[in-house]
Amino acid sequence: MKILPASWTQRYRPRRLDEIAGNKDAIAALKDWLASWVATPPKRRAALLYGPAGTGKTVSAEAASRDLGFELVEMNASDKRTTASIERIVGIAAEQRSLTGRKRVILLDEVDGIDPVSDRGAVETIASAIERTNWPLVLTANDPWDPKLAPLRTLCLMIQFKRLGLRDSIPYLRKICTAENLEVEERALRFVAERNSGDMRSMINDLQTLSAGRSKLTYDDVLWLGWRDRKESIFQVLGSIFNAKTCAWARKAADLVDIDPEMLFEWIYENAPAQFSDPKDREIAFEALAKADLYLTRMRKTQNWSLLSYALDFMTAGVAMARERTKPSWVKMSFPERIKLKGKMKRESGLKVEIGRKISLRCHISKAGAIQYFIPYLKQIFKNNRGEAERISRWLDLDEGMVKYLSGRRSEQVRDVAPSGVEFTEP
Ligand SMILES: Nc1ncnc2c1ncn2[C@@H]1O[C@H](COP(=O)(O)OP(=O)(O)O)[C@@H](O)[C@H]1O
Ligand SMILES: [Mg+2]
Prior knowledge:
The chain is of the alpha/beta class and 427 residues long. 56% of the residues lie in helices and 7% in strands.
């Protein structure tokens, strides 16, 4: 039995030139140039295949050698390209004949990855190899205008690889799906292709990831791919929970944002009333939220994390399914009041403890005592007697935040402070 490679980019790696999608002009140029070596070495001893990642530069070099019956000597990006190791390749290049008697192609992959510091002299060595070689040298690079490659550009036949258009990539992806027995919607394939802006390797990788464990891939299945790596803001995620058409969609949305479930609960709780204008819908939504809350509380108490998934089901899918009578419309999302309040209380109790500590140092009483008996009086003094307040502040060595707190001017500072891990941006 033949063992297939696990990754689809390996499994469906083109072996012959006519299996490669798109870039027909580049492939023809490469093939013509290589074929011209059969008679006598042409003027240009090297070709530089350049263009964005995942457009088929490496596979084209490999397939062209295979098609023309050349033997391929490859030095890829993971090999350390010290001057010495390049010298070795140069040595091979300078040889008159190969061991097998076949013609050779020498491939130096991703030359723009050469580090001018650790691979010093490597570019110059390659340049001198090009001048002396008896075999075709194929170089690849994403960015051929990289200044460090300047010495090579003038020596090479420049062959441009372009991002793959939809007309080339969609049929290619479709072939893979057929081979994998994967039924896939046209719109889904188009979405995968469009999202990867012409990078075939990424398209294939996305396709494989998305179809894991499925026999059918729909547009909805691939749509949320667009979400995942864009790190959606909480507002967009809430939007997709409140407006989800299916339970699965609502539930998935919860995974897209980097926020803990209890915080997510607060956001949904805060915004649900505005989202469901119909009273019956609202009642159902809050019933789901009550159940979610129950599970969250139990989870916290028992430390049984398997309850989380029930809580999430209720707060996402449960809430989404409440929408029956309410018409979808744009409703402003707001920051959870309860969190604002909690945050404010936490900050203020922190200040209280700090002030209590300062008092206890000066007055030789306990911190708790200072907080309980002194702070209320200090608050009165700070509100009504500025001179005295200043004197006390200096004596206790209070900072600005503490003074503000005692004089009751603290509140405006606490407004709209986002809890950590949440980007607080209005949509
Ligand atoms: N034009 C293409 N046609 C078919 N498969 C491609 C093409 N370009 C890239 N691939 C896929 O991507 C993988 C990497 O391709 P590669 O030639 O290394 O891209 P590049 O060298 O341009 O970054 C291949 O194994 C193949 O599966
Ligand atoms: Mg490559």
